[in-house]
Amino acid sequence: MLYEGMGIPVLEAVACGCPVLASDTPTTREFVGNAALLFNPIEGEPISTGMQVFQADPATRDICRQRGLKKVEKYRPQRVFTELIRAYKTANGLTVA
Asked: What are the beta bridge partners of residue 22?
């Protein structure tokens, strides 16, 4: 994928505890950081290399899985809701608690 408006599919995968191999695009990097193996979406070889790494190295799979589960916590609905309310109040000049 060369463009992703928001990394929802990637976030869904990490939220499910899946080790993720994803396109190295700005949006993906923003949402998963080091919780996924990233590949150049224009080249085919790095995709297969990443798949081979996950297949051959259980430790890498588990590290990505654990990092992903930790990373996705900041996107849980209650946290996002709280941050949105804070942003709306700040934009309207209200006191933020």
From this structure: 38
Cα separation, 14 vs 68, whole angstroms: 5
User: 67: Cβ–Cβ under 8 A, 6 or more apart, which residues?
Assistant: 33, 34, 35
- pLDDT, tens only, 69-78: 999 888 888 8
What does the domain layout of the chain look like in residue ranges?
8-91
| Amino acid at position 42, single letter | I
CATH topology of domain 8-91: Rossmann fold (3.40.50)
Is 5 within 8 Å of 27 (Cβ atoms)? Answer: yes
Over the stretch 79-94, which tens digit does the pLDDT of each residue have?
Answer: 888 888 888 888 888 7
* Predicted TM-score (pTM) of this structure: 0.74
Angle between helices 58-72 and 45-56 (to 10 degrees): 100
